[in-house]
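Task: sequence design from structure.
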């Protein structure tokens, strides 16, 4: 494992008058995936990974704008905002065919797997051309 944000400590700026602090999500990276990221990951995937693994200020949650578009909060056919999935962690892996893979693990207590499956194409398009997205159900203990 290469990346572990658990010991990253920055001073908290979370107060009533200041911006909302959004902590980094845990990241599990294996050395073969790290090497592939450097040479094969798209600029968008690199940026997304970097955004998840650092402190952010002013955002309500990671991927907030993308999730609004993908799940169409409060729009026809969408879901209530209170049911929005929450990013819990990311993993960098190498697929069986040797490609770099960024896995996003969400907690989505109020959603079914089918809610993600019918939006699979929207997830893929968010990450740019040439990127595929797969949806599956995983236990956090899998990590």
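Answer:
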């Amino acid at each position: 494992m290469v990346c572990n944000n658990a010991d990253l400590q920055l001073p908290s700026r979370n107060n009533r008058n200041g911006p909302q602090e959004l902590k980094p999500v845990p990241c599990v990276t294996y050395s073969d995936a790290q090497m592939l990221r450097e040479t094969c990951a798209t600029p968008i995937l690199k940026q997304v990974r970097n955004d998840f693994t650092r402190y952010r200020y002013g955002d309500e949650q990671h991927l907030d704008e993308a999730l609004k578009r993908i799940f169409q909060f409060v729009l026809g056919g969408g879901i209530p905002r209170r049911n929005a999935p929450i990013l819990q962690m990311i993993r960098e892996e190498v697929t069986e065919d040797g490609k770099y893979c960024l896995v996003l693990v969400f907690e989505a207590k109020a959603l079914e797997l089918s809610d993600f499956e019918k939006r699979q194409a929207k997830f893929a398009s968010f990450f740019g051309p040439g990127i595929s997205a797969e949806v599956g159900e995983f236990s956090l203990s899998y990590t």
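Strands lie at 21-22, 27-29, 56-57, 86-94, 100-107.
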